[in-house]
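step: validate -> pass
step: tokenize input -> pass
step: predict -> running
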Amino acid sequence: MGFPQIEKEKCFISFSKIPNLAPKNFPYAVKCYNLSPTLLKKMNIREKGDTLKVGITHILPAEIMGSGIGSLSATRGDYDITTQDLESIGKYGLDKLRLGDIIAITDADNSYGRCFKKGAVSICVVIHCNSYVAGHGPGAMTLMTCVKKGMLKPFIDKKANVAEILRIGRFSR
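step: predict -> pass
step: emit ->
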């Protein structure tokens, strides 16, 4: 039984804590947090061999993350994408970031808090807007994280936004 066929509505805490529901190729590797079963079911997620591909709007490096790093939990609060460097804003398309965008942060382990770890990938949702305070910016809340290099692979999907996926707000028509 592959990822798309599992009982996703029961996977709201972490696949690693519910091994009988873990995707066959991803037991104990991909952790889910703050993820509604409805959103999980509708996200653009594809299983290919031992890789889980997730549609996202932006791929960001851990080096531009600020406030919230070192937090003891990925289930409470968020961490901010710093926006004080104009070159980074252009390079990573931060000026096109929207509330509800699902993004990937590379070299970011959100398993038991938030930290830098080479090869890890975290999938997050943008939950608040920019700030001009140093170390702050749009906030990202963790949805998925994986420390096993190459297992969780983001791919660009311009429609990877909670409002579009769930057909709410201006996308409800």
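step: describe -> The domain at 49-171 is CATH 2.102.30.10 (tm1086 (SG structure) fold).
step: cleanup -> pass
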